[in-house]
Automatic annotation (TrEMBL):
This is PAR1 protein. Keywords: Signal. It comes from Sesamum angolense. It comes from the Eukaryota. It holds the Pfam family PAR1. The keyword Aminoacyl-tRNA synthetase does not apply. Residues 1-24 form the signal peptide.
Amino acid sequence: MASPTKFSLVLFFACSLFIQGTLAEVICENLPMNMCAFAIASSGKRCVLENNKNARGETSFTCKTSEVVVERLSGYLETDQCVNACGLHREFTGQSSDAFISSEFAAHLCSPACYQNCPNIVDLFLNLAAGEGVSLPSLCQNQKENHRAMLTILSNGSPVGSPLAAPAPASL
């Protein structure tokens, strides 16, 4: 049977490893490529994945610290769940508002799974949209209204809550 002292030492050692891991500093240039996009350094600056071509035309990626500061989320690594819910991928390079052109992207970004649960990604695209003179909340509201209208059209005028309602019987 293990002595209480040995158990206490093992517990102390395990806890100290956990605390060290949670207090680790996030430095963009030290992140693996599959964690760079949508990360925020401990300094509060966004990490950005940049692609470079060498003389042979081969593309390589580097994780860099941008000048964009995020107030509330320093030292944050985005979850795969949010990346997927928002319709993004880890190979996202640069920071561009070009994605707003796609209605498919807007549908992912404005979905409750993304918009309500992924504040880092929403903050990023909120700022990108604002830089282009677009209100992300308005864009999402339009997306929601267009979705409702499409459901109404697809349901042949049936209530929106029942898009699978049985069609009316044909009259003879």
